[in-house]
Amino acid sequence: MSIETVVLSKDQLDMLMPLIVEQQHDCGKEVDLDSTRTFFEGLVGHEATFQIVAVEDGVAVGLAMVDPIPNLQFADNVAYIHDVYVTEALRGSRGIGPLLVASSFVEAMRRGYEFAEGETEPDNSPARKLYARLAAKLGVGFKEVDSMRYLLDLRPAIERAHSEPEYLDRLATPRLLSRLSARP
To answer: Residue 83: what are its φ and ψ, rounded to 5°?
Structure first.
């Protein structure tokens, strides 16, 4: 069984809903499927906002949301990667979280974002280390803005993609990230 990542489309919402229900329950929220589906129908398919879904055998097992945020210090718009979620049964065991985040960076580069920002809880040491390792693996700049926010300069990878057109296709693949997800 292998995991693939895809940019969510409206025809995949039925596949996503069980994962969203699980995520909402994990957050202690009551789930209203109709309003949740309506929410996602309003998001999916926009050029600036996108969602990356990890899929195994036709089942959504992970999700990362990406929205543009203004950040005039670094760029007009920065891809803000948030709400990364992996189904509890697979959490921490197959590198799905790193794959979702890396795929989000790659899709952001494809859409013309030169910077990406991530965020985590201050005490989430594994996530903090993940951003630094992903930046090194993907060949992009990394700056810890504070103990919870990370800014990644995607321009080096975008530049490399100009001279190596297949470069972005190679990034964010399970094979590339296999060593990355190994615990030290």
So the answer is: 50, 45
**pLDDT tens per residue across all 184 residues of the chain:** 588 888 999 899 999 999 998 988 888 888 888 888 888 888 888 777 899 999 999 999 999 999 988 776 666 678 999 888 999 888 877 788 888 988 998 899 999 888 888 888 778 777 777 877 877 777 777 777 766 778 888 888 889 989 998 888 887 665 555 444 443 3
| Token digits of residue 158 | 């975008």
H or E element that contains 79: strand 75-86
| DSSP notation for 88-137 | GGGTTTSSHHHHHHHHHHHHHHHTT-SEEEEE--TT-HHHHHHHHHHHHH
CA–CA gap between residue 84 and residue 74 (Å, rounded): 23
Q: Which amino acid is at 135?
A: A
Residue type, 139: G
